[in-house]
């Protein structure tokens, strides 16, 4: 097993699982909020129109989750992406979240959280290693499986060529480890043992 988590890919290289795309344009959904006791006001009759009004564009660093074989064989027209936040930015969000719950974001609690993510105890989060000395560098990154996006493949591929910038991509077996963690997050379910034997 190699200790190197990443390869550096050229702008024209075909998109694959594990590619990290920085500042990727995404569509998110903004749910309208009303003041307590007030109605949301008039809503469009057409549900498609109502949904389109909730769409909001933003940018985020993401990692490609779609299987490499599906991309290589052109079996998909849309690409599944998850945000991968630099650890320093993730820490700021964590500190804000702790303070909003009247908790003290202590160094000990931060270390415990990072250890839990690294060891796979936080089902919705995955930690990528850092790459401090390279043509392209990155700090540790946290992948959040709670937020999942899809973007047209042609859009992503055109964007990468237009930017003309190299990108980092996860190497095996770390790419497969990310995929396995993603699958484990979705398959966590407790099934009732209610099958009555008749044999």
Automatic annotation (TrEMBL):
Top-level taxon in the UniProt lineage: Bacteria
Protein name: Uncharacterized protein
């Amino acid at each position: 097993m190699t200790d190197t988590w990443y390869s550096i890919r050229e702008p024209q290289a075909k998109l694959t699982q594990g590619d990290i795309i920085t500042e990727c344009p995404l569509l998110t959904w903004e749910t309208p909020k009303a003041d307590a006791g007030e109605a949301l006001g008039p809503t469009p009759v057409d549900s498609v129109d109502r949904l389109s009004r909730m769409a909001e564009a933003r940018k985020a660093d993401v990692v490609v989750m779609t299987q490499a074989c599906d991309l290589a064989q052109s079996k998909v027209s849309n690409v599944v992406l998850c945000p991968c936040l630099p650890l320093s930015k993730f820490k700021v969000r964590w500190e804000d979240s702790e303070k909003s719950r009247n908790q003290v974001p202590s160094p000990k609690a931060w270390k415990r959280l990072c250890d839990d993510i690294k060891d796979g105890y936080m089902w919705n989060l995955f930690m990528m290693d850092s790459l401090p000395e390279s043509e392209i560098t990155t700090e540790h990154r946290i992948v959040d499986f709670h937020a999942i996006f899809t973007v047209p493949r042609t859009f992503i591929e055109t964007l990468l060529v237009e930017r003309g910038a190299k990108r980092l991509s996860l190497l095996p077996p770390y790419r497969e480890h990310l995929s396995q963690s993603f699958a484990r997050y979705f398959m966590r379910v407790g099934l009732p043992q209610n099958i009555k034997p008749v044999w």
